[in-house]
């Protein structure tokens, strides 16, 4: 994952609890399976990296969630570092002996964080109303996230890179109904925007002006290409987009996920991607 924007409302008693839109950016040669229920762990819904064995974003029928982005620091990359995707799958599969709270899990991850190449990791438990974040670069300890609209790209949480600021703002506008005030429910409340709208929001090829670009140690032309929310270069780019909505409905939490992939299902990249997978399920609150 290279761009995630999300809205977190842990105190919600009805309606949206968590809304997310995310792009996964990766080398085109790296094979992966799309969003699916894992055979070896039937309660896990996630894609699967077929090289490292982990994943970049996923959730469970019990209410766990995790997502990962790489931290861009090309001169610090170590080829012998362990794969970062297992940090997501370990939380989702509830690996033996690990803490069972998001903050506890990230605190344990942080003990060995220096072994990995740079990453941001968000883990949550919707039934606990807890969402936490950790980056293994910098001096910030794992922390629970406050209510609000946030974004992560390839630097620490809410670093104001142009594409992050733009998509975080657009997500907030959509959620707050500023762009869809006429579509209402029977009670008169604004309906949530369809997940397809969040997907389209993220498929944006606009690049930043050169004077807005961060300096992350890569050539200017590459920096420019990677400044788009939707990246498309000959060897690297956005491989898929995920939209996720988690809502409180009485004694249930409703989860709805939509993925649009640029992989046609046979590990071949096709532009523009239009291979969609939709999943929905409910979690009973005890």
Describe the overall structure.
The chain is of the alpha+beta class. It has a single domain (3-284), classed as Penicillin V Acylase, Chain A (4-Layer Sandwich). It is 16% helix and 34% strand. The chain has five helices and 13 strands. The chain has helices spanning 85-92, 102-111, 162-175, 195-202, 220-225; strands spanning 3-8, 15-27, 32-37, 44-49, 57-60, 64-70, 119-125, 130-135, 143-144, 148-152, 236-249, 252-261, 275-284. The strands form two sheets. A seven-stranded antiparallel β-sheet has the order 3-4-5-6-7-8-9, covered by helices on one side. The longest helix is centred in the middle third of the chain and has 14 residues, at 162-175. The radius of gyration is 18 Å and the shape is globular. The model has no long low-confidence stretch (mean pLDDT 93).
Multimeric state of these chains?
Answer: single chain
Summarize model confidence as the mean pLDDT: 93
Text of the CATH class: Alpha Beta
The number of domains: 1
Pfam families: TANGO2 (PF05742)
Protein name: NRDE family protein
Describe the structure concisely:
This protein is an alpha+beta fold and 286 residues long. It has helices at 85-92, 102-111, 162-175, 195-202, 220-225, and strands at residues 3-8, 15-27, 32-37, 44-49, 57-60, 64-70, 119-125, 130-135, 143-144, 148-152, 236-249, 252-261, 275-284.
């Amino acid at each position: 994952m290279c761009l995630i924007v999300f809205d977190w409302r842990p105190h919600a008693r009805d309606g949206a609890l968590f809304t997310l839109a995310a792009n996964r950016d990766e080398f085109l040669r790296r094979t992966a399976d799309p969003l699916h229920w894992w055979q070896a762990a039937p309660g896990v819904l996630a894609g699967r990296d077929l090289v490292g064995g982990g994943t970049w974003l996923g959730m469970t029928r019990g209410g766990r969630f995790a997502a990962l982005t790489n931290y861009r620091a090309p001169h610090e990359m170590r080829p012998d570092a362990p794969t970062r995707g297992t940090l997501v799958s370990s939380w989702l599969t509830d690996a033996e002996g690990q803490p069972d709270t998001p903050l506890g899990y990230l605190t344990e991850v942080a003990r060995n964080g220096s072994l990995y190449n740079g990453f941001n990791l968000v883990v949550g438990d919707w039934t606990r109303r807890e969402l936490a974040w950790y980056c293994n670069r910098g001096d910030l300890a794992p922390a629970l996230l406050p209510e609000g609209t946030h974004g992560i790209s390839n630097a620490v949480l809410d670093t104001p890179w142009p594409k992050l600021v733009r998509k975080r703002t657009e997500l907030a506008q959509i959620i707050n109904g500023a762009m869809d005030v006429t579509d209402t429910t029977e009670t008169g409340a604004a309906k949530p925007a369809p997940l397809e709208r969040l997907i389209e929001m993220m498929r944006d090829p606009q690049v930043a002006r050169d004077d807005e670009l961060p300096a992350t140690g890569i050539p200017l032309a590459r920096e420019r290409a990677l400044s788009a929310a939707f990246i498309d270069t000959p060897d690297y780019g956005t491989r898929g987009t995920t939209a996720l909505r988690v809502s409180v409905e009485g004694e249930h939490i409703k989860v709805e996920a939509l993925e649009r992939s640029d992989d046609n299902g046979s590990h071949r990249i096709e532009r523009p991607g239009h291979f969609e997978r939709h999943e929905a399920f409910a979690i009973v609150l005890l």
